[in-house]
Design goal:
The complex is a heterodimer. Helices cover about 35% and strands about 15% of the residues of chain A. Chain A is built from three helices and three strands, in the order αβαβαβ. Chain A has helices at about 1-10, 20-25, 50-65, and strands at about 15-20, 35, 75. The chains are: A alpha/beta, B alpha/beta.
């Protein structure tokens, strides 16, 4: 996933990743990434039909575009 | 001729984001094997293609082809990994300007060299051609 992200970023488009495999993602050095702590594959944005939670995670992820750059790092947040 | 230099893993590409989210078009890109229900499925054994997804489709009109984790939740709500409805909702609220006409997804593949040399560059160019102001990526 980070390979795709880095390729898009290299074309001059800002990118941000939601990952549920933070260690693997961090090793690949993403331009920007968020890990919702404890979330697993199939639940990058949380529970099904939980619109409020999904939008919260989505906005937090998009807001990483506005945050101080931490290229190569995965930012961890809690949503429980 | 010498081979072109490759970006080291230790070097992180970084494009500054200089807009406001409220004036930005967002494109979704995933490796979760997402597609329109009306499109042929990804090959679960390995698939090096990527698919374009009409961004007017709702989550209920999308499917996910994958055999590596429990799909109980995605089958109820594709927004769990590909938040098309939530992004449209943010656009209605004016928190982002909108979405690109198409989103994109790859499927599962272990043919890493072909992915790196062919699929990923093609996908990145297709994403760029959709003229997003920012791209949101999801895995599974």
């Amino acid at each position: 996933m980070v390979t795709v992200q880095r390729a898009i970023e290299m074309l001059g488009i800002p990118t941000v990743l939601i990952t549920v495999e933070p260690e693997e993602s961090a090793q690949a050095r993403p331009p920007r990434a968020l890990y919702p702590r404890g979330f697993i594959a199939g639940h990058s944005l949380g529970r099904p039909k939980d619109e409020a939670l999904q939008k919260w995670i989505l906005m937090d992820t998009l807001e990483l575009l506005l945050a101080d750059p931490q290229p190569g790092e995965v930012v961890t947040r809690d949503y429980s | 001729m010498e081979k072109a230099l490759e970006l080291s893993r230790y070097c992180v590409p970084f494009t500054p984001f200089k807009r406001r989210l409220e004036e930005s078009l967002i494109c979704l890109v995933s490796t979760a094997g997402v597609r329109a229900r009306t499109d042929p499925p990804f090959n679960l054994e390995g698939d090096n293609s990527f698919k374009r997804i009409d961004s007017t489709l709702e989550a209920a009109q999308l499917a996910v082809d994958d055999s590596h984790y429990d799909h109980g939740c995605i089958d109820q709500d594709v927004n769990c990994v590909f938040p098309v409805d939530r992004l449209r909702s943010l656009a209605r609220e004016g928190r982002v300007a909108g979405v690109t006409p198409e989103h994109f997804s790859m499927g599962f593949s272990q043919a890493l060299r072909e992915l790196r040399d062919t699929t990923v560059p093609q996908l990145a160019r297709a994403v760029s051609a959709a003229r997003p102001d920012a791209v949101l990526l999801t895995g599974g």
